Amino acid sequence: MTIQTSSKRLGLSLFIGAALLAAGCASSVKLDETPVETRVPQIKDAKTPPPPPASQSGVATVDLSKNDLSTAGLGRVVYFDFDSFVIREEFRAALEGHAKALNGNKQKRMTIEGHTDERGGREYNLALGQKRAEAVQKSLALLGVPESQLESVSYGEERPAQQGQDEAAWAKNRRAELKDR
């Protein structure tokens, strides 16, 4: 698969994701026109007091002081397939968690480092590493993270995570790392 084909797929995937997100935000129910009523059951036994009226919204209260915006439990590495910069589905939850943390703390900054395995030329690998870092950055941006909080950099094949000349080592080296700065 070429980078150009992967780029088209990523662009199409991002476009479809954004369209689905926008469609999900639109609602056909106008909340200000919906009648709200509270009903209290009539109890025939005078010994038992009536229960307090229940909330009709069904929305639970949220304690924001307990809202943990840390990224401690989230993965900080996104792995890629050979010659690809398409983010695999298994890493979307981690990226959503990082986006939530970054959106919750506007002072926080993140560097995304793109890496490749040793196959391919130096210039090609630098370009592919940059595409991987930018793919992660664009995913975070689509989740609402301002570009000013993110920086993408490529190291190509220069900083391998694992030494070796086999598929297991190469798979560990095809990655993007999310680092706080």
What is the structure about, briefly put?
This protein has 4 helices and 4 strands. With 181 residues, it is an alpha+beta fold.
What does this structure look like?
By secondary structure, the protein is α+β, with helices and mostly antiparallel strands. It has a domain at 86-181: 60s Ribosomal Protein L30, Chain: A. It has helices at 3-25, 92-104, 122-142, 167-173, and strands at residues 77-79, 110-115, 150-156, 175-180. It has a four-stranded mixed β-sheet with strand order 1-4-2-3. Helix 3 links the parallel strand 2 and strand 3 (150-156). It starts with a helix and ends with a strand.
Radius of gyration: 24 Å
Overall strand count: 4
CATH H-level superfamily of the domain at 86-181: OmpA-like domain
- Oligomeric composition of the shown chains: single chain
CATH-scheme architecture of the domain at 86-181:
2-Layer Sandwich
The overall pLDDT, averaged over residues, is: 77
Report helical residue fraction.
25-40%
Unreliable residue stretches: 25-32, 62-68
Can you summarize the main beta sheet?
4 strands, mixed
- What's the N-to-C terminus distance? 33 Å
Elements, N to C (H/E): HEHEHEHE
Approximate strand percentage: 5-15%
Helix/strand-derived category reads alpha+beta
CATH topology title of the domain at 86-181: 60s Ribosomal Protein L30, Chain: A
- Sheet with most strands: strand arrangement: 1-4-2-3
**Bulk shape:** globular
CATH class of the domain at 86-181 equals Alpha Beta
Number of helix segments? 4
